[in-house]
User: Fold MoaB/Mog domain-containing protein from Orchesella dallaii.
Amino acid sequence: MVIAMIKGSLEVTPMAMLSRPVCGVRGKTLIINFPGSPKGAGENFDFVKKPLKHAVDLLSDKKPEVECLHKAMQSSNLKSKVNAVNVADRARKSQFETIPVKTAQDIVIQNCLEIPSVVEKRTLKNSIGFILAEDVLANDPLPPFPASIKDGYAVFVSENSQLQNALLQVRGDSTAGESPDKCHVEEGFCIRVSTGAPVPPGANAVVQIEDTELVERTEDGNDEKVIRILKSASKGQDIRPPGSDIPANELILPKGTRLGASELGVLAAVGRPQFSAYRKPIVGLLSTGNELQSPHDMVLEKGKIRDSNKTTLESLFQKEGFQTLDIGIAKDTPDAVYQKLVEGLKKSDVLVCTGGVSMGEKDYLKRVLVTDLGATIHFGAVLMKPGKPTTFATCTLNGNKKLIFGLPGNPVSATVTSHLFVIPALRKLSGWDTPLYPAVKVQLEKDIKLDPARPEYHRVTLNWNTETGVPLASSTGNQISSRLLSCNTANALMLLPKAGEFPNGIATAGSLMTAHLLSL
Ligand SMILES: Nc1nc2c(c(=O)[nH]1)N[C@H]1C(S)=C(S)[C@@H](COP(=O)(O)OP(=O)(O)OC[C@H]3O[C@@H](n4cnc5c(N)ncnc54)[C@H](O)[C@@H]3O)O[C@H]1N2
Ligand code: MOO
Assistant:
């Protein structure tokens, strides 16, 4: 066995199941997996040189572009280097350290930060949810002219007259959309104005129609000739001065603003129909498993189930505004997993796989990622329920770093881990500063038995109509990770500590807990 120290620690792990040495990096540790005996490792020493060189660069923080994808990626006949394992020789312990959720989230976000953001030109259409990549200043003021706030009369109020009981001649009208210069207001006269219409030159107040009476009609009887002002008026009343809503050249939307309906409306109002925003990542979705059939199949073959993860995750990511691509279903063979991974990585920025990450002899995902794609697995086990075998890896394709999530196949585990890891990553890559769901304090409706070993993300429905002002959290029932019904109606993930932290291992009704708010 070869062990070397390079400005950090180097760990060398024999791993009988691999056909050749492969390397991965965890923190500052380079992990080289050898195919069996120390003799085998020695024979392969030449092959180790490249990973060692990479380690030197990496540990000295040079961050080289790692050639991660195997050359065979270019070929259509992708043969995995992963050998099927002799069942008796399979690993009986996970090779991955189980890390806390917070640590795992930090690793994901850190990797997102290392991907340069892409800025694109966008327009008002289909830009909801995008993040501005530039400071936006108003081109034009709003309103662009002094605008009437009421339907009534534009009048002139002098220093010593408040116009109460004044008789004014109606000189014409100004309706919305007309040029303000059409007529002029002076003492003794007024102009009929409608809401939003320009207040004509000379006028300095608007009197609403309710505060006037008609005194005299025109000769044909159809129009107003003279009106009386019933209430005293003050200068500036019921006029929006130019730029009073949005001044010209004012910074209205700073870089980093998430575009919602009103932000887009503001851009429309001030003459900024084009702007720069961060591109959103494209999400590839790959289901793995021999047992999976299409959800459209009406008849299930023996031993099969329908692929529900694809539909759930597709809907979840689309609801968050991300474009998804269906990469299909990979059978449980190294070649099939390899081919689908390559296809997914070529087509997407973030590849989300479900299934095949646990301890089964046909759980190939992690091995194919490392052996065939030279991907770096940053973590492969997280201290959480559900979602323990959640896996996160990165690799580089044509100079672009790609994120790969290997989510557990159980439908609830895939959903919960999408909320906790995938969506924050997608948001971060889209330019969000704070991509995690907000945490709120909630009150437990009923006693809940805690898991002895893992903190649990319990699906709850929050009821906001409580007298206390703290939302009441009702469990969605049986929380087994296969029961997707437990996610129905859930609008929060309530974080329950592991059993030791509560007497008798029970979180009692009325206790305050933290919950991640998924929706209102
Ligand atoms: N010996 C151990 N076994 C398991 C462990 C462990 O620590 N040691 N962890 C368990 C936990 S926790 C989970 S979660 C699962 C995760 O397993 P995998 O990610 O390998 O997923 P699969 O085995 O492929 O599938 C699990 C389950 O989910 C169903 N499934 C898979 N894909 C889909 C899909 N697209 N749509 C609907 N349902 C799907 C699959 O049929 C299985 O029932 O491992 C435990 N085992
Ligand atoms: O951690 Mo698993 O996701 O409980 O079923």
Remarks:
- The first helix runs from residue 38 to 43.
- The two ends are 56 Å apart (CA to CA).
- The chain has eight helices and 30 strands.
- The longest strand covers residues 167-174.
